User: Fold Ax21 family protein from Luteimonas aestuarii.
Amino acid sequence: MKRSVLALGLLAMLPLAAVSAAEGLSYNYVEGGYAATDLEGLPDADGFGVKGSIAFHPNFHVFGDYANQEFDNSNLDFDQWRLGVGYNHTLTARTDLLTRIAYEKVDLGSFGDADGWSVEVGARSALLPALEGYALAGYEDGDQVDGDFYGRLGAQYKFNQNWGISGDVKLVSGGDRQWFVGPRFSW
Assistant:
């Protein structure tokens, strides 16, 4: 029910969607693809993920991620999602300062769940006409985990104005790593 209401709310904002002030950067996109996690002391996990963002003002956007992954050599899977709001401020004609805050949740089924939050700050830039990238530093904390600092690096290669392929890696100070790669549709 909550997901349906959220989806309807995001769809209702589509007519109001705005674009970034920085040339070539769009905060309106949806992407899906392969997701993988390497947790210290636990088996690796992989599966699929979907991500999206909708700008509702030239400097603000809402974003969300969802991933379903299964631990290697087991039937145990988990759902991980986050929902947040971001602020982008133009630094140059092709670069934005980016700050984001999000609510996060991990659901391990019968093993319980964990709620938390994260905050990120960094830069996103149109490096070349067909290539953009970002670098973010973040901090996350929750009810079942101690706070951790992390770095997030990502890039997108654009085939045309709407389609591209994107990749993202998150490196957590405790040694955990997360990857995502897949096609992106931007508008």
In short: The two ends are 27 Å apart (CA to CA).
